[in-house]
Amino acid sequence: MNKVVFLDRDGTINVDKQYVYQIDNFEYLPGVVEALKIFQAKGYLLIIITSQSGIARGYFTENDYKKLDQWIKSDLESKKIHLTASYYCPHLPDALIPQYRMECRCRKPGLGLFERAVKEYEIDLRESYVIGDRLRDLQICNKGCKGFLVGNTEGSDIILEVKKGRYNGIKWCSNLLECANIVNNTICAVRGSKEHLT
Ligand SMILES: [Zn+2]
Fold it and tell me: How far is the CA of 176 from the centre of ligand 1 (A)?
């Protein structure tokens, strides 16, 4: 069985500039490269799971997505980081492009892509983590996966509830490197301390 870190893409790995599909527009968030190296060194596979509704909306094509995805893989490879896989959902119930118009199981919070990954890579969810900037990225925590919510994309009310430990033990971190340091046991993992409990 493998252990994995499931990673959301926009807002977690790279700056969310809204429907990013061009290489020139792809910018790693601070600490991401270092964080991925730590996860890798701890023996985790790295798998991106991303909803890309920009395809359904006609903002860019599936081919555009794949080109950027390939670039990310080779760029990380040049930094000695191996991305095991990336899975994406191009659908949307009210998509502009007819071929993508559907209620699918792969668009987050759906678990379709996670289930595929678990099967294809024999993943032990209890030993794995999922990291995203929205709660909808973290639904797999209902199946025993451990989770981190990163950054400030979610509202302060939700972040406060997460800090109190109200969502499946999901922890909040300001960025990916902080998550990696917790996984690496280099900083204290205890969250929801008294200062957060008003
Ligand atoms: Zn889908």
Answer: 26
Contacts (Cβ under 8 Å, ≥6 apart) of 107: 51, 53, 89, 91, 92
107 C-alpha to ligand 1 centroid (Å): 4
Which sign, positive or negative, has the C-alpha torsion 51, 57, 62, 68? negative
Would residue 137 show up in a list of annotated catalytic residues for this protein?
Answer: no
Strands 129-132 and 4-7: parallel
Please check whether the domain covering 4-196 is classified as CATH 3.40.50.1000. Answer: yes
Strands (E), the chain: 4-7, 45-51, 85-89, 129-132, 146-150, 171-173
190 pLDDT higher than 70: no
The Å distance, Cα 94 to ligand 1 centre, comes to 12
Give the tens place of pLDDT for each residue, 72-83: 999 999 999 999
Distances from the Cα of 85 to the Cαs of 44, 69, 193, in angstroms?
A: 12, 10, 36
